[in-house]
Design a protein that fits this description.
15 helices; 340 residues; single chain; mainly alpha; Rossmann fold; four-stranded parallel β-sheet; 4 strands
Length: 340
Amino acid sequence: PKTNVVFLKVHKSASSTVMNILFRFGEMHNLTFAFPARGGSQLFYPHHFLARFVQGFSPESAPQFNILCHHMRFLRPEVQRVIPRTAIYFSILRNPVQLMESSFTYYKGTSAFSRAHSLEEFLSQPYRFYNPAVGDSHYARNLMTFDFGFNPDADISPKRVHLMLKAIEASFDLLLISEYFDESMVLLKEIMCWDLDSVVSFPLNSRHSSTRSPLSDSMVEKIKNWNRLDWEIYSHFNKTFWERIDRDIGRERMQREVRALRERQAELAEICLQGRGSVAPKDIKDSSLMPLQFGNAKILGYNLKQGLDKKMEHMCRRMVTPELQYSSALYKKQFPQKPA
């Protein structure tokens, strides 16, 4: 199994679920995490990543951390000072249309979105609300482009798009697609040489359906045009994603692997979860399993079954622990002397 990994946690793209997978794998194998200094939840985002943002980083020593997976704005030369060069680099992308709809709800308090009554109103005249000079403007336009380290307000020339895609390809071994999450986990399992249980998960940080908005065809086109750079990234890597499946696994075997993954997930849901699925925040009984409620989104969580044996309870709890609580627990384990 590969144990050195860099995960670029792109916002609102099922990345919290992937992070939980990495937390569990790292904890099980006693790996070291590149935590934000003083135990924060982000690596000084939205600034470009710098090695000195990592708790315990020493410029004199060789890269000594195994897993880097907290929110950051990617800058590869700095990442290489922290994680060994043998690391697998990967990220996960989401259709920019759904990404923007989700961002508008989740980041409603940001400067660009707070004054717009609806996403439709924002898109009708975006520059009424959007000012690229304001510090939190990146949440409102080409958010994936920004997280990968590029300028979200750049001109969209064919040359610029080509260079951006080539730069991403040069830095990352694997780009996953959140709309095909199970296929993505099979690909991750293959490249990391991990077993099935290492990539099985329950969806984390998902929104309640009551806070999702349907989008008209004209809205979809406006979102694509407003997030043109994100659309170019997503379209390109959605294509290479399937090319990679055809080349490395094949559709038939992929179907078998996905079936096995879903069966295992259903089996664990039956063992671990009351009601076998997620619940609204008001119905979460254990406050330690309450995910952060942010913006106008209602973030779902889970209730564990009672009476599980100690080993099973530990495994089930880890699968449903929200990222802030899990990150804090792992930080305390790795740096017992330093208060988060």
